[in-house]
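Protocol step 4 of 6: structure prediction from sequence.
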Amino acid sequence: MTAQAIDGSRERCLEHGMDDFIAKPVKLEDLRRALDVWLRGERGNSGGSGERCLKRVARLKGGLQPRLAAPQRAVWAIILDEMFRGGVLCILTSALCLAGFAQDPASTKASSPESSSKEPSSKDSSPKDASIKVQVNDVIVPVTVTDAKGRFVTNLEQQDFQIFDQGKEQSIRYFNRERNQPVVVGFLMDLSNNSKSQWKSYQTAAEELVYTLLPGDKKYSGYLIGYSTEAEVMVNTTSDPEPIVDKLRKIKPGGGSALFDAIYMSCTSRKLVQGEPTEPRRVIVVIGDGHDNSSKKTMEEILELAQRNEVTIFGISTTAYGFQTGSEGVLERLAEETGGRVEYPLQNVNKDVSGYLQIPSDEGNYVYKVGTGGYASALSNAIFHAIGNIAGEVTTQYILHYTPDAAALDSGRQFREINVKVNLPDVKVRARKGYYPFAP
């Protein structure tokens, strides 16, 4: 049973000697089918389902069966029988328990002296109450560096960077500054009622962004999730931009806003690409205003999920000049915590106009002359620059890898802060704020 559900996984597992394969999300009927195939039979001289499971584990472990005395075998057989009747959702845990039971010196007194002499002494055994933690062995940190004017700095070397884990400098073991690195991009489209006023502009921005980030090369993949009152995977992961653009042209806004559920879905409910999250990297682009009034998930849950899944979140705000939703800081926080950025194309349409709202005419007091197309042109130009900034950052990030030292991991902190510094004046560095060293 595995979460590895990419194309070809089943065939590779069976080719390497596995008897069967079940991928997440696990359906109860699939599990029952597999158990019926491999553990079918009635109780009798050969034993019930639990007894057969013990025999099968014994063959896989290369000699586990003789280590269990008859009373112990009977107990485990009964336990496993009851599990099978109850739906068998703990079979993997049982196998691990059996393996640990077989390694316990106290349970092998009935074994032969020769086999007992090979068992580790009690001094080498771990304390029984010690918890098991799965730790992060390699931390991946995408980094963006811009100068004082917001232009990307793309000619840095590894020695120009310093990376700190909880304030302690770490050794960078991998560095990459190549442009156009493989990436899988999630396009999250806000379909709430708030999007209706500027919907055509948002559609245009989304379409252009898809075409920019998915040029048709197999190393670039993307998917589309629309969210209103509920979130939905509208187009699953693909390297072809056309299905995504075609869907964008057909959808219409209306309803509430479940932004957090959409981000959760992008991390849990889509087709994965082999190699994620190292190569390709994971990126989410939210095209919306950051407002959420319908999600089951919370901001804190989503931030933790994004950090654990090594996702960088970018945003293109759809909030027009003069409008407020009360959620202006949501996109900013999502981006800052994960190392991304937010663009505001509709907020700065008038920033280069002198005498704003001081240009009276017969038509009224407008910034742009009515009927000239000046406003539409300014809006298109702002969207174009926003798309260029997001696409440029996605494709020009530096990639740093480091392995946390033992002292860092031994501290037991649930969340560890990362700080990346560049040895240059007047530059801005964007990177994820931290990571979770242990599984939840």
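Step 5 (inspection) to follow. Residues 41-47, 59-67, 86-135 have pLDDT under 50 and may be disordered.
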